[in-house]
Task: inverse folding
């Protein structure tokens, strides 16, 4: 949503632009046939910049505390709870980056950095405490049938007794949704170990965006009639995916967590591409566009410009997200 260099001529003929994009849209499905599916298996590393650099080493270390958790899962919990905000405080009096309520902290908080105190506001204590609490819950339900990680998350939400009583994740809609949300969201924090599936909605999202070429930029624009159908960068990407039934968050740095992260040489048309002045922290992302192939995206770049094609290979290129429907649904409404 801020000023970025662009070397594509803004006056590209609309007819030529549409033809160019439609060829790329068709190419989504041709390329997709050659893409291997899934995030893959193996040791879990964090995706580049997905966790703020100040906390990345802590999450990587403590995320391996026991077999029921991994760094990406721990990151997903912290993001879901606070958006990595160490000063977060909820109406329910949950506190800090891991959102412990005082009673739980008094029992389960640990001195993670060994400085002699247990401070819920200090991520050096709160992040290890979150991992330790997860592993403690996992030990309570270790004999319950089913996936140990799912059972641990269910115990976090509904209590260990419910998991033991029902022999696994209990039949509570809230608990089942919590388990699915966290296990889905972890894909956006894990570095993929294989090719990731193409999005089924990608081609139609591009079609929507290319239909907005030439539309003037509007800071805060989401394309409403009152705004004259104008957009800012994340408003455009949100509307493009909304047109195919996928609801993304409003701002770019939250849209980054809507799915796994293909590498630069694995990009497919329809992937969201992100830009930041801090390449170590996804929370600092400030611009997003929709990749169309050939090193270009459609984006709403800045005030005074129009929705257009821009190159993605600039020094502030942060990374990409392959949006999934489940990934978008798993995102918290506010972090």
Result:
């Amino acid at each position: 949503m801020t000023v970025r260099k662009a070397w594509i001529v803004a006056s590209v003929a609309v007819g030529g632009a549409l033809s160019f994009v439609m060829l790329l849209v068709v190419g989504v499905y041709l390329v997709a046939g050659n893409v291997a599916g899934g995030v893959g298996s193996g040791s879990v590393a964090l995706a580049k910049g997905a966790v703020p650099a100040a906390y990345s080493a802590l999450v990587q270390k403590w995320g391996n505390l026991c077999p029921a958790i991994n760094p990406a899962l721990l990151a997903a919990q912290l993001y879901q709870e606070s958006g990595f905000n160490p000063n977060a405080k909820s109406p329910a009096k949950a506190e800090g980056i891991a959102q412990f309520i005082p009673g739980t902290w008094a029992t389960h908080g640990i001195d993670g950095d060994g400085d002699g105190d247990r401070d819920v506001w200090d991520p050096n204590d709160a992040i290890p405490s979150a991992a330790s609490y997860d592993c403690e819950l996992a030990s309570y339900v270790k004999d319950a049938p089913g996936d140990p990680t799912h059972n641990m998350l269910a115990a976090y939400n509904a209590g260990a007794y419910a998991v033991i009583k029902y022999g696994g994740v209990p039949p509570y809609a809230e608990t089942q949704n919590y388990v699915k949300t966290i296990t889905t969201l972890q894909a956006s924090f894990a570095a993929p170990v294989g090719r990731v599936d193409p999005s089924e909605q990608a081609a139609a999202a591009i079609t929507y965006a290319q239909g907005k070429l030439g539309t003037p930029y509007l800071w805060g624009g989401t394309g409403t009639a009152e705004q004259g159908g104008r957009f800012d960068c994340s408003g455009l990407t949100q509307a493009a995916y909304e047109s195919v039934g996928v609801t993304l968050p409003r701002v770019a740095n939250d849209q980054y967590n809507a799915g796994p992260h293909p590498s630069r040489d694995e990009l497919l048309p329809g992937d969201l591409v992100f830009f930041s002045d801090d390449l170590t922290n996804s929370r600092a992302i400030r611009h997003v566009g929709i990749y169309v192939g050939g090193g270009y995206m459609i984006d709403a770049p800045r005030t005074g410009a129009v929705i257009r094609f821009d190159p993605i290979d600039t020094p502030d290129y942060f990374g990409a997200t392959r949006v999934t429907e489940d990934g978008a649904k798993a995102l918290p409404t506010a972090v």
Observations:
- The first strand starts at residue 272 and ends at 275.
- Residues 98 and 158 are 18 Å apart (CA to CA).
- Strands lie at 272-275, 287-293, 296-299, 308-311, 317-321.
- The mean pLDDT is 87.
